[in-house]
């Protein structure tokens, strides 16, 4: 029987296998993730929308920074809430590009759309104080909230204890941890460019990415 949702560990295994077997790189997949995230944000935004993207020092942050660059390129007002110093090679390069494209560092007075690319599937609970403080500030804002991959601070049983996302854009395949989110939270799955043979190998149903690379679940 094929499954459609994966545990985070099963997803990491599939992801790693795809990277190795098909000579894919994280940078390449991050580019796909960031483009789909930018599309989802742009659907919600209007011309004058103020967008804040919360960024951590990992690949989740890197995906958020690709989205920041794409949104800035489309003319949006993009702000970056850097939770920690961005020192890792890949997110650092993405940060430099996003700034060159016109994204600004800092939290503006009012945000219309707040994106959580603070932490993704490598987050360990409890979060450090710097992240809990960031989540508190974001949750106190009236902004529409979108999480990349999984919300920062989500508990193992899927309780939305952290960032209060209105939408979650998860990558490549649905994750079981997202099944227990409140029903009002809209979950989307985005195409990372992983081929069908990888889904078949792991006995997972591939979302119909031929139709659209961003699918509402
Ligand atoms: N193929 C892939 O693996 C891809 C992954 N992408 C994204 O990358 C994410 C995973 O990236 P990473 O593994 O770099 O990690 P994350 O971005 O989830 O986390 C970054 C780092 O935060 C630190 N951290 C973890 N728990 C913490 C805590 N409690 N307090 C403070 N710091 C903490 C860790 O050092 C961790 O490495 C995914 O969720 C997804 O969004 C995408 O960008 C593209 C492709
Ligand atoms: K996230």
UniProtKB/TrEMBL annotation:
<dbReference type="Pfam" id="PF03853">
    <property type="entry name" value="YjeF_N"/>
</dbReference>
<feature type="binding site">
    <location>
        <position position="116"/>
    </location>
    <ligand>
        <name>K(+)</name>
    </ligand>
</feature>
<feature type="binding site">
    <location>
        <begin position="120"/>
        <end position="126"/>
    </location>
    <ligand>
        <name>(6S)-NADPHX</name>
    </ligand>
</feature>
<feature type="binding site">
    <location>
        <position position="149"/>
    </location>
    <ligand>
        <name>(6S)-NADPHX</name>
    </ligand>
</feature>
<dbReference type="InterPro" id="IPR004443">
    <property type="entry name" value="YjeF_N_dom"/>
</dbReference>
<dbReference type="GO" id="GO:0052856">
    <property type="term" value="F:NAD(P)HX epimerase activity"/>
</dbReference>
<keyword id="KW-0630">Potassium</keyword>
<feature type="binding site">
    <location>
        <position position="60"/>
    </location>
    <ligand>
        <name>K(+)</name>
    </ligand>
</feature>
<feature type="domain" description="YjeF N-terminal">
    <location>
        <begin position="11"/>
        <end position="200"/>
    </location>
</feature>
<dbReference type="InterPro" id="IPR036652">
    <property type="entry name" value="YjeF_N_dom_sf"/>
</dbReference>
<feature type="binding site">
    <location>
        <begin position="59"/>
        <end position="63"/>
    </location>
    <ligand>
        <name>(6S)-NADPHX</name>
    </ligand>
</feature>
<protein>
    <recommendedName>
        <fullName>NAD(P)H-hydrate epimerase</fullName>
        <ecNumber>5.1.99.6</ecNumber>
    </recommendedName>
</protein>
<dbReference type="GO" id="GO:0000166">
    <property type="term" value="F:nucleotide binding"/>
</dbReference>
<keyword id="KW-0479">Metal-binding</keyword>
<keyword id="KW-0520">NAD</keyword>
<keyword id="KW-0547">Nucleotide-binding</keyword>
<comment type="function">
    <text>Catalyzes the epimerization of the S- and R-forms of NAD(P)HX, a damaged form of NAD(P)H that is a result of enzymatic or heat-dependent hydration. This is a prerequisite for the S-specific NAD(P)H-hydrate dehydratase to allow the repair of both epimers of NAD(P)HX.</text>
</comment>
<keyword id="KW-0521">NADP</keyword>
<keyword id="KW-0413">Isomerase</keyword>
<dbReference type="GO" id="GO:0046872">
    <property type="term" value="F:metal ion binding"/>
</dbReference>
<comment type="similarity">
    <text>Belongs to the NnrE/AIBP family.</text>
</comment>
């Amino acid at each position: 029987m094929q499954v459609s949702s994966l545990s985070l560990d099963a997803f990491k295994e599939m992801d790693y296998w795809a990277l190795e077997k098909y000579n894919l790189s994280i940078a390449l997949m991050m580019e796909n993730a960031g483009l789909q995230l930018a599309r989802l944000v742009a659907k919600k935004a209007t011309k004058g929308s103020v967008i804040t993207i919360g960024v951590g020092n990992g690949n989740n942050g890197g995906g958020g920074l690709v989205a920041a660059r794409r949104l800035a390129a489309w003319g949006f007002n993009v702000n970056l809430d850097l939770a920690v110093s961005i020192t890792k090679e890949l997110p650092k390069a993405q940060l430099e590009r996003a700034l060159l494209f016109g994204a600004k560092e800092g939290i503006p007075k009012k945000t219309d759309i707040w994106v959580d690319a603070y932490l993704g599937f490598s987050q360990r609970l409890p979060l450090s104080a710097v992240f809990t403080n960031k989540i508190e500030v974001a949750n106190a804002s009236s902004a529409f909230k979108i999480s990349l991959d999984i919300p920062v601070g989500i508990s193992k049983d899927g309780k939305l204890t952290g960032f209060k996302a209105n939408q979650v854009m998860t990558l490549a395949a649905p994750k079981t941890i997202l099944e227990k989110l409140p029903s009002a939270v809209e979950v989307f799955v985005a195409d990372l460019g992983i081929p069908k043979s990888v889904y078949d190998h792991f006995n997972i149903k591939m979302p119909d990415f031929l139709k659209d690379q961003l699918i509402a679940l």
